[in-house]
Automatic annotation (TrEMBL):
Pfam families: Cas_Cas1
Spans annotated as Disordered: 126-204
The protein's name: CRISPR-associated Cas1 family protein
Keywords in alphabetical order: Antiviral defense, DNA-binding, Endonuclease, Hydrolase, Magnesium, Manganese, Metal-binding, Nuclease
Keyword S-adenosyl-L-methionine applies: no
Molecular function as annotated in GO: DNA binding; endonuclease activity; hydrolase activity; metal ion binding
Residue spans of biased composition, Low complexity class: 132-143, 169-186
Length: 204
């Protein structure tokens, strides 16, 4: 079985006529489409579309359907040529309708065709629609690095170090300064005031 294409005419005031062995579509006296007639299995016209009498007779002679719809796609009429009453074909169709394997394959083919047509429609709309260029933002917020840390709160029970009131000494290396600092400077919450005073007197 050879499946032919269905041609949909949706442009208002389009004129569809027969040109030798081809189907031609004119819009405002300009040719928009021309396809061989043997590639078309049916012709569907939306709204105010003109069809020549010669094309109507040719479609009827070849058994091709002509469907008329309104602007919103509501069915109005269908013209089709003589159909052969093949009883064997009708029996095969009824048997196929009762076979779950055949019906599943037909359903898959219908869904695949719907997805393919939707993909084609989306791609056509993407080609015809041009999105405006988005201007670059010139007022971007500057990035601060390294991030500022919140100051640590002083322990509520920490005792003031007695050595902090002593006279400053000469600058030494960072290692000696770190080692000569009193324990209360490193952890004032672990030393009371008398212990800090004794440690200060011993270092003088």
């Amino acid at each position: 079985i050879t499946l032919q294409n269905t041609l949909y005419i949706m442009t208002p005031l389009a004129y569809v006529h027969l040109d030798n062995a081809t189907l031609r579509v004119d819009v405002e006296h300009e040719k928009r489409l021309q396809v061989p007639l043997h590639h078309v299995g049916a012709l569907v016209c939306f709204g105010n579309v003109l069809v020549s009498p010669a094309l109507v007779h040719r479609l009827a002679d070849e058994g091709k359907a002509l469907v008329l719809l309104d602007d919103s796609g509501r069915f109005k009429a269908r013209m089709e040529g003589p159909v052969s009453g093949n009883i064997l074909l009708r029996l095969a169709q009824h048997r196929a309708a009762q076979d779950p394997v055949v019906t599943l394959e037909l359903a898959r083919a219908c869904v695949a065709g719907k997805i393919r047509n939707s993909r084609t429609l989306v791609q056509r709309g993407a080609r015809e629609t041009e999105l405006p260029a988005t201007p670059a933002c010139s007022t971007a917020a500057p990035t601060i690095w390294p991030p500022r840390c919140a100051p640590r709160r002083q322990h509520a029970r920490s005792m003031p170090c007695a050595a902090s009131r002593a006279k400053p000494r000469a600058a030494t290396s960072p290692r000696s300064t770190a080692s000569s600092s009193p324990p209360c400077a490193r952890n004032s919450s672990l030393m009371d005031a008398p212990a800090a005073r004794r440690w200060t007197d011993s270092t003088r």
